[in-house]
Amino acid sequence: MHSLRKETLVTIVGGLILLIAALHFACQYYFPDMVQLQTIFPKFFYLPIILAAFWWGLKGGIPAAAICAAIHSIDLYRKWDPSDPDHLHRILQIVLFFLVGGILGSLVDSERRYKKDKLKAEEMAEEEFYRAITDPLTRCYNRRHFNARFYEFWERAERHGELFSLMMIDLNDFKHINDRYGHVLGDLVLQTTVRTLLNNIRKTDFIFRYGGDEFLLLLPSTKGDFAMNLAKRLRDEISKLSFKAPDRKSFKVDFSIGIIEYHRGFKDQQEMFRRLDEALYKAKKEDQRVALAS
Questions:
Q1: Which stretch of DSSP H or E encloses residue 208?
Q2: What whole-number distance in Å separates Cα of residue 42 and Cα of residue 110?
Q3: In this structure, which of 61, 70, 112, 131 has its CB flanked by the most CB atoms within 10 Å?
Q4: Is the same domain home to 114 and 156?
């Protein structure tokens, strides 16, 4: 598509140059006495030069100017007469072709470089920001970003009564997995777990790596009962995961999940987290490994 478009534009510029040249020489042949009309046609060469410079910058403006100058030079050679008052003007016409093509082409190139540099700077800034808020291993958000997001949701809940819930997921005996199977397999367990979580939560939910083997889910507009059902579904999905140890034996992982729903009765954020930790501790002792803070 891009190649076809470029070929079309080249055809337009080339066609304009040939058309103007043909009309100019035809006017000289059929209307030799109409000198005033003959002096008009060379000015039309500025149109293809401007178009070429606008579309391709210097790479288009200078070659188009050179072609137009070559055609104009033929006419200049045929009418060479230094005594003619318009003779100097015809010579300057060639210089003007190159000036228009060069100046406009340079401006276009400069503008495009500016836009390209600006876009590159924005992409680098976005990439830096993304790296600053994500965990490099699992590619989910990190604890630093959680603190900012949690404060934001807390303030909205305090001021406008917007509901949200927190879910803390803890991988049981993860140290044992690292010690027995190695950190490479341990990292794979974490990465696979995060992918499973992402595939089973809403697009509006946020997942954060809060610690080595702890993950936090921030669930906007979510009551505790809904979060409880989601936690059970997540445990079912995670229970389907199976990993192969270096000795080719398969093993599964086990998670405990604590849940808490925001309400105005919390004294501060620390109290909400303390109650969430208690729910997680309770979940570790229950068969379902899921507990909702009361």
A1: strand 206-209
A2: 28
A3: 61
A4: no
Among 128, 152, 182, residue at a domain's last position: 128
Q: Are residues 110 and 195 in the same domain?
A: no
Angle between helix 183-198 and helix 174-181 axes, rounded to 10 deg: 140
Closest Cα partner for 167 from 213, 219, 212, 111?
219
- Interior angle at CA 153, CA 152 and CA 154, nearest 5: 90
Polymer length in residues for the chain: 294
Total domains in the fold of the chain: 2
Do 158 and 285 lie in one domain? The reply is yes
In the prediction, which pLDDT does 30 show? Answer: 72
Residue 294 has pLDDT above 80, yes or no: no
Is 135 a member of any domain? no
Cβ partners under 8 Å of residue 218, min gap 6: 146, 149, 150, 153, 164, 166, 205, 206, 207, 208
The domain boundary, picked from 128, 158, 182, lies at 128
Q: Residue 51: give the domain boundaries.
A: 2-128
Task: Indicate if the alpha-carbon torsion angle 44, 47, 48, 49 is positive or negative.
Answer: positive
Query: What positions carry a catalytic annotation?
Result: 213
- The Cα 286–Cα 292 span in angstroms is 12
Q: What does pTM read for this prediction? A: 0.69
pLDDT for the residue numbered 81: 63
Mean pLDDT rounded to a whole number for the chain: 89
**DSSP notation for 248-269:** S-EE---EEEEEEE--TT-SSH
